[in-house]
Design brief:
This protein is of the alpha/beta class and 334 residues long. It has 2 domains: 100 residues, MurE/MurF, N-terminal domain (Udp-n-acetylmuramoylalanyl-d-glutamate--2,6- Diaminopimelate Ligase, Chain: A, domain 1); 159 residues, Hexapeptide repeat proteins (UDP N-Acetylglucosamine Acyltransferase, domain 1), CATH 2.160.10.10. It is 15% helix and 30% strand. The protein is built from 4 helices and 39 strands. The strands form 6 sheets. It has an 11-stranded mixed beta sheet. Strands 8-11-14-17-20-25-28-31-34-37 form a 10-stranded parallel beta sheet, with no helix packed on it. A 9-stranded parallel beta sheet has the order 9-12-15-18-23-26-29-32-35, with no helix packed on it. Strand 38 and strand 39 form a beta hairpin. The longest helix is centred in the first third of the chain and has 23 residues.
Length: 334
């Protein structure tokens, strides 16, 4: 990438304070700033680095008033943290468009069923397998060593990274990103106990539906339903190493951090936040806007919207903090 301070300001509706022709070609944390880099300042605890940073351009809030001289060219925006996120997206989109305009092709080593249908400007890498009656939308990118089963639907502008496996009867929306090693549509963990102590496998005949603008991290898994569908709503963000079990429903714009696991037939509401290593039992409902702290275990339904939970079993944050004082006091007595 190569951007001038003037181009950055235009992309973010900001204004330049300094040299508008200052060029940056990379990003760097403010404490690691170097010539040719763009950094941002949004958290007051990092203010000392504003005056020592060697970055060429610094993204700051429009109301920031420096207390000392500042060397980098400043680009003032309404919110620097949001601004850098928008700029990263801007650069990524621009690079992606460039790649697509120069690299639409199908590798000769791939195997695509004659009954599959690929849209315009689809790029398919080496050793990809695409099954019968599968449809892939315009401008999607399928990287090497991806396996896509029969009767799959993938929307427009999807990016499927290497090693992803998509089982039959999966439906994936537009602008979806599946990172390396994702498994979408494998059988859920369904087994019926038998009188002799053995387990009888329950066949899973349902599917998976993933909405638009979803991103799923590396080595995460989404199981197919026994009947009907496992559903991931629009705008959902799933980190690496997460497990979504059969018949789970996740509402729009919910996010979950790494190593989160959701057991079968649970419904997660919209705009929820699940921190790292959260565990949720099966057959419960989590209300919209729920926030669940790291390593919490949820064992019952949450009915009230906007609840913040901590602990295992998880309960209301305010109650947890009061209880934690007692936990600490009891530990001192031992």
């Amino acid at each position: 990438m190569k951007l001038t301070a003037k181009e950055i300001a235009k992309a973010l509706n900001g204004r330049v304070e300094g040299n508008p022709e200052e060029i940056v070609s990379t990003f760097a944390k403010i404490e690691h700033g170097k010539p040719g880099a763009l950094s941002f300042y949004a958290n007051p605890k990092y203010e000392e680095y504003v005056y020592t940073s060697k970055s060429s351009v610094l993204l700051v809030n429009e109301d920031f008033q420096p207390k000392q001289p500042v060397t980098p060219t400043l680009v003032r925006v309404k919110d620097a943290y949001t601004g850098v996120a928008e700029l990263l997206k801007y650069v990524s989109t621009r690079n992606r468009k460039y790649r697509r305009h120069r690299a639409f092709s199908t590798a000769w080593t791939c195997g695509i069923s004659l009954k599959a249908r690929l849209g315009r400007k689809v790029w398919v890498g080496d050793y990809v397998r695409i099954g019968a009656r599968t449809r892939i939308g315009d401008c999607s990118i399928i990287h090497s060593n991806v396996t896509i089963g029969p009767d799959v639907v993938i929307g427009k502008k999807a990016i499927i990274y290497p090693g992803v496996v998509i089982y039959p009867k999966t439906v994936i929306g537009d602008n979806v990103i599946l990172h390396a090693g994702c498994i979408i549509g494998s059988d859920g963990f369904g087994n019926a106990p038998q009188p002799d102590g053995s387990w009888e496998k329950i066949e899973h005949l349902g599917g998976v539906i993933i909405g638009n603008d979803v991103e799923i991290g590396s080595n995460s898994t989404v199981d197919r339903a026994e009947m009907e569908n496992t559903i991931i709503g629009n705008g959902v963000r799933i980190d690496n190493l997460c497990q979504i079990a059969h018949n789970v429903v996740i509402g729009d714009n919910t996010v979950m951090a790494a190593q989160t696991g959701i057991a079968g037939s649970t419904e997660i509401g919209k705009n929820c936040i699940l921190a790292g290593q959260v565990g949720i039992v099966g057959h419960i409902k989590i209300a919209d806007g729920t926030i669940i702290g790291a390593q919490s275990g949820v064992t019952k339904s949450i009915r009230k919207t906007g609840t913040v939970l901590l602990g295992t079993p998880a309960f209301d944050r305010a109650q947890f903090m009061r209880s934690y004082i007692k936990f600490k006091e009891s530990g001192k007595d031992e």
